[in-house]
Amino acid sequence: MSLSEKHSVRSDSHVSSSVSLKSDRSKGDFPPDFSERKPSSDKSVRSDSHVSSSVSLKSDDSNKGDPPNFSERKPSSDKRLQYETLDSDVQTHRKHESFTDNLLWIFQDLEIKIITFLKKELEKFKKILQNENTENLVKDFNENRCSTKAAALDLTLHYLREMKKDEAADALEDELLFIHQLKCGLKKKYQCVFEGIAKQGDSTLLNNIYTDLYITQGGSEQVNTEHEVRQIEVASRRHESQEIQVECRNLFEAPEQEEEIRTVLTKGVAGIGKSVSVQKFVLDWAEGKENQDIRLLFPLPFREMNLMKKEKLSLMDLITQFFPETKGLNLTRRNNFKVLFILDGLDECRLPLKFDHNETWSDVSSPASLDVLLTNLMKGNLLPSALIWITTRPAAASKIPPDCIDRLTEIRGFNDAQKEEYFKKRFTDQNQANTIIDHVKKSKSLFIMCHIPVFCWISATVLQNILEEKRNNDVKINQADEISKTQQESNTEDTPKTLTQMYTHFLRFQIQQSHRKYDGEYTADVSWDKDSILSLGKLAFHQLERNNLIFYDTDLEACGIDVYKASVYSGMCTQIFKEETGITLGTMYCFVHLSIQEFIAALYAHLFLDINKTNVFVHESKGQENKNKNLFKTRYAHPFRDINKKNKIMIDFLKTAVDKALESDSGHLDLFLRFLLGLSLQSNRRLLRGLLTQQDDNDQSNKRIVQYIKLKLEDNLPAERSINLFYCLNELNDQTLVKEIQTQLSKGSLSSGDLSPAQWSALVFVLLTSEEELEEFELQKFKKSDECLVRLSAVIKTSRRALLNNCNLTDKSCPALAAVLGSDTNLKELNMNNNKLQDSGVKLLCTGLKNIKCKLEILSLSWCYMTEEGCSALTSALNSNPSHLRELNLSWNKLGDSGVKNLSDLLMNPQFKLEKLHLSECSITEKQSVILTSALKSNPSHLRELNLSRNNLGDSGVKNLSDLLMNPQFKLEKLQLEYCYMTEEGCSALTSALNSNPSHLRELNLSRNKLGDSGVKNLSDLLMNPQFKLEKLHLNRCRITEKQCVILTSALKSNPSHLRELDLSRNKLGDSGVKNLSDLLMNPQFKLEKLHLLNCGITDVSSLTQSLTNSKALQFLKDLDLRKNKIGDSKQRLRDVLRDSNCVLRVD
């Protein structure tokens, strides 16, 4: 029976059509609006009347949240029979009027209840679509779902689609079915976090411990030449002020005037917090806290998708496998809804990702290879409206073509304050927390590593355990026998100061925890399972060679590892299962952090040597081995002449490891080498007693390998490799080279004498690891030479300002400097003034300047012997990368016609937003000045300082400039026109222009120009303008007379409150001129700080002395220059007055 049939009754008592669910309104374009009429509160209806279309919402049941209870008046079996045979019963039993009346009342009440229930449900559905209290309404619907509520939803969806309102139907279905279930599942999965080792750590609510990580916009796009630990060291020296910080929750918010962001790539070294950031983002969405404009969110880790790489499946199949609750979801009907896919761990992807070769795929329902699906999803062919967030380690970022990325971000981990915050949160005992913080800070290498959250956990685990062991030993030491005393000494001899010591203690602790967890016992001594560690080490070593962090069953089996044992042994390997679909997709393994894998790999290499008496690197070609042996014999015959065979095997082993690490272009073996060398120390091997062979004559081999490393440092290695070798020396407890350089630095003796390559490398290491921030690098402090610049280019790269002026530099140093400019550098200011670079050197610099990575803001190339050829190359480079430079100094170079023309073209570029331009003594002519000012007129809004001093502009050139100054968009603050061959005609034009646009200029230099009477008069009129707020005025050698000085000072008296510097040197002011200035100083509003009156024909300064004595001028005056004036006896009185002030008096 249809709904309309169920509602039909006799014609004399029918239900009004306005209540019927198949009313005329249902045929329209919009759903019925039940709020059009205010419902009546009267429930009584006469038996012969129509049922009111305005049904009360205030019936007894209307305020209950439950559906109507039809069992309140349970009909008898006779009445049930009557209902079933309604028509015949009414015909044969008309005499039973009470039955008819009762039936009518029942259906009237039934109608009220149904409509009331439906109205309430529809109102909830409407609020859900309007995003009003959505979370609670959806939660209530799902938690209190029953057949009647489901029926109401089915009816609503059916009629919305019949009305062609598919978008509303899809949105409602998403919110009530797919989205709620998806959020519930994600919340359950992501709300807890396991710190470090999931098998051993207690789970903690993520929201209780999460600390925001430092995320920046942009990042390196170059090929990595450094180990990730070294990248952390470099990043730790960057200035936060020069970076754009991005909050994780705002990744897809586009800055103003930028296009919409579809795809975000977030980089970060291993363990820096990428996956935890993803976890927090997902949890905040699932809990309804952030990014609620995103309707569907699907985290798809690459490590889990690797297990499906051979399958063919559609995008919908892929989603369903990870999120079974979305079965039945139709994404093609949801183009207007935001859908986010999070592809976590690109570096773990074992798919080829053939962006250029894969076929185009756009159908979400058609099966294809996983590689085709993912590349088309990222390119925007498949579900183009979807948002994509990809996370990766830096080395794998290049797998994604740049044109597929809209925003690049980088997670930098903990800053220094967050490191301390972590330890204070980690320990309830704040004294213990502070002890650990103090210890970590004492070791530069440990403190830098704490940028990585996982390393903070490792350090906290180790140091807490050591502190507890020491406390226990203090109690038990008197009861211990000699053997256990020795063991305790090895356990607690020193808190770790190097990475090797930290990781060795960490391994010991994990083995002890393993025994406690799986064997039910704990002992201070360590019982090593050498076979298991060998197998695990083999896995670590060979996968490190392949640069793999994620392993699968086949990888373990190839190393002879029992899969079950690997998942529990010592907690060093974490096993992850994915079982959300009811079937296990597969098992993946990884070390807790890359550094742990590198430590275990180094340990394996030592174990392999101990057991097999063979170098683990023996697979190298025989030819290379012979080459190494010959090199060894030739260069190191003397150091190794008398060592025994056992030591020689160890030295060969370590030497080969050094060579192998130095051969790596990416530096991926750098940390492995640190661990390998650190484990050769007897002090560290004692901690591994029972696992590694103890060597009595170990010191001999250590001395030999230290010598070998120092000789390697003489080979002019790249900075990245030499820096790591110094860290290796630190692991070997040798700081002789470093201390030697530190001594020379403290004595200031580096500028004299030649340094060896090893000493240069030591200097770089000392500067890069110093506690002081490298805000500024000044080459003159070291040695004025091309060699010094080239050697210290790695230091320049980390500095913000490089002051290389007056250092005898030539074009030989420019390639190294260009490499710095074209890299991911901190450099924002480069001063190369007064160096003979010539055009050849400038051209070499341009290769770096035009690189998009170059973000230089200040470039000074004054007096660099540049001609129009070099200027043209420079302006071309800046035109190709125009958006960063703010200050350019090309003074004292002969730019020529073509140079000025190309510079003018650059100034016209709307992306070139130069604020300061210095072109003093550039041989600019009147004709060239016309071209220059014309360019500035076309792009006038950015320039704030202009220096055209010492150019033959003449009055016509100044007039052209004056036209520019009248432009209200031209907001110049500093104008220098010293020695420009200007006369009173040009000065009058200039002052007139400034009078028409007076509010911006703060500094004016007209020195060495013949201003004349009218020029000084017009200038004085300008100074009287209350809108003209000049702070610095330079009129040196302008032939100002005593009479003109009276006019000038009079003007300043009328507008005295702004001027701070006044230079009237080399003008014949005489004593009367000084008297007028002295009267001006008496004005309490005149707050002059610098007054220069050098060589002004002054013989008496009594008036000046009196003014300074009787006014507040000395509260402000800081610099008074009266040199080359024959002031005689009045000089002493002036000195007496100024003695106790802050003013510096300069007299002959």
Q: Count of helical segments? A: 45
Q: Runs with pLDDT <50, length 5+?
A: 1-86, 196-201, 482-492, 569-585, 619-643
**Rounded Rg:** 41 Å
Strand line-up of the largest beta sheet = 14-15-16-17-18-19-20-21-22-23-24-25-26-27
Query: What is the end-to-end distance?
Result: 117 Å
Main beta-sheet annotation:
14 strands, parallel
Give the amount of beta strand, in percent: 5-15%
Task: Kindly describe this structure.
This protein is an alpha/beta fold and 1148 residues long. Among the domains are: 3-132, no CATH class; 187-223 and 242-398, P-loop containing nucleotide triphosphate hydrolases (Rossmann fold, 3-Layer(aba) Sandwich), CATH 3.40.50.300; 437-728, no CATH class; 774-923, Leucine-rich repeat, LRR (right-handed beta-alpha superhelix). It contains 45 helices and 27 strands. The strands form five sheets. The chain has a 14-stranded parallel sheet, with no helix packed on it. Helix 44 (1102-1110) links the parallel strand 25 (1090-1092) and strand 26 (1119-1121). Helix 5 packs across helix 7 (166-190). It is globular, with a radius of gyration of 41 Å. The termini are far apart. The model is unreliable at 1-86, 196-201, 482-492, 569-585 and 619-643 (pLDDT under 50). This is NACHT domain-containing protein.
Keywords:
14-stranded parallel β-sheet; 45 helices; alpha/beta; 8% strand; NACHT domain-containing protein; 47% helix; NOD1/2_WH; disordered N terminus; 1148 residues; Leu-rich_rpt
Indicate the topology.
Layout: H1 3-7, H2 77-84, H3 86-92, H4 97-129, H5 134-143, H6 147-162, H7 166-190, E1 192-193, E2 204-205, H8 206-209, E3 215-217, H9 228-235, E4 263-267, H10 274-286, E5 294-299, H11 302-305, E6 312-313, H12 315-322, E7 338-343, E8 368-369, H13 370-379, E9 387-392, E10 407-411, H14 416-426, H15 430-442, H16 444-449, H17 453-476, H18 482-492, H19 499-519, H20 530-545, E11 550-552, H21 553-558, H22 563-568, E12 573-577, E13 587-591, H23 594-612, H24 622-636, H25 645-663, H26 670-678, H27 682-687, H28 698-712, H29 719-731, H30 736-747, H31 757-768, E14 776-778, H32 786-791, H33 793-798, E15 801-803, H34 814-821, E16 829-831, H35 838-849, E17 858-860, H36 868-880, E18 887-889, H37 896-908, E19 916-918, H38 926-938, E20 945-947, H39 954-965, E21 974-976, H40 984-996, E22 1003-1005, H41 1012-1024, E23 1032-1034, H42 1042-1054, E24 1061-1063, H43 1070-1081, E25 1090-1092, H44 1102-1110, E26 1119-1121, H45 1130-1138, E27 1144-1146
Parallel strand pairs: 4-9, 4-10, 5-7, 7-9, 14-15, 15-16, 16-17, 17-18, 18-19, 19-20, 20-21, 21-22, 22-23, 23-24, 24-25, 25-26, 26-27
Antiparallel strand pairs: 1-2, 3-10, 6-8, 11-13, 12-13
